[in-house]
Amino acid sequence: MLGTDGMTMDMVQEHKFAYLLHKNAQQNTGAMSGESFEMLRANARMASRCFGTKIGTLTEGAVADVVVTNYLPPTPL
């Protein structure tokens, strides 16, 4: 599970930190970990269980935050 009690409350940044910490722990800049993405994905499921409400789905009656970003890649895809 990922979370933050910092001033920014930026979950995207928290995911980035988890990803980079994994690379550092492995001493391998090419290391890839699906664990940091899975931690981010599992947050809604865990929060739903803790708070007893639907979180993380775009369905009627569910609590939801939607984040839309304009992705500007540093190199062409």
TrEMBL record:
The protein's name in its UniProt record: Amidohydrolase-related domain-containing protein
What's the domain of life for this entry?
Eukaryota
* Pfam families in the record: Amidohydro_1
Gene Ontology MF term list? hydrolase activity, acting on carbon-nitrogen (but not peptide) bonds
| Every Amidohydrolase-related domain range | 1-71
**The species this protein was found in:** Kipferlia bialata
